[in-house]
Amino acid sequence: MLTGLETAEGAVALDPAQMRPMPTALFEFRRAVGVGYFGYIEPEGAAPGEIPEEPQLEGAILFGMRRLPPEISDLYAIPGWELHELPDEQPQLEQSYGSTDSLLELRTPDGEIYSRICVPHNPEWTAAALRLGYVVCLCGVELGIRGPYAMTDAQHTPGMRYESFRRGLAWGLTIGGLVTYVDHR
Q1: pTM to 2 decimals?
Q2: Is CB count within 10 Å lower at the N or C end of the chain?
Q3: CA 144, 104, 29 angle in degrees (round to 5)?
């Protein structure tokens, strides 16, 4: 359970009974070292507790992103990182389906795009991100978003998703923190 936030303005203690949901963006890598059809495969001969190296994650850590411990209790602001929300420029979707998508771009301190996802636009999520000025961003190999090969979303149960997320944390394959939100919509 998240109990506190460390921002440039100082530490903030959180009372779960009074908390509204924090806007969150999850970036689960499709391709990564050690990821097969059935999820992450621990390298043969790896010592217990050894943190596997995944180049995408290690690169982000060099830019100031933090590796998350198995028991997350605090998230910290990651200086210089930003999450940009842009409208997806596909007017035919709005005409056909009555909704639009958002592109979420996680950018490094030098302004380069680290990762990008397309999600359905959610005005409540955007309003919360604007109000708070920060978004929780998590990146990793196993966040529980994608199911194993040939498994449908219906078969990939919430319990399986949770176990996948916990496994990614235990292996040291999850990074994240609070990043500044930038709205372009």
Answers
A1: 0.77
A2: N
A3: 35
> Higher-confidence residue: 89 or 39?
89
Q: What is the mean pLDDT of the chain?
A: 80
Spatial distance between the Cα atoms of 21 and 128, rounded to a whole number of angstroms: 8
Contact (Cβ atoms closer than 8 angstroms) between residue 85 and residue 182: yes
Distances, alpha carbon 96 to alpha carbons 11, 90, 91, 92, 100, in Å: 46, 10, 9, 6, 10
Quick: pLDDT tens for 8-38: 666 656 666 666 678 999 998 865 444 444 4
In 3D space, the residue among 17, 10, 22 whose CA is nearest the CA of residue 124 turns out to be: 22
The full length of the chain comes to: 185
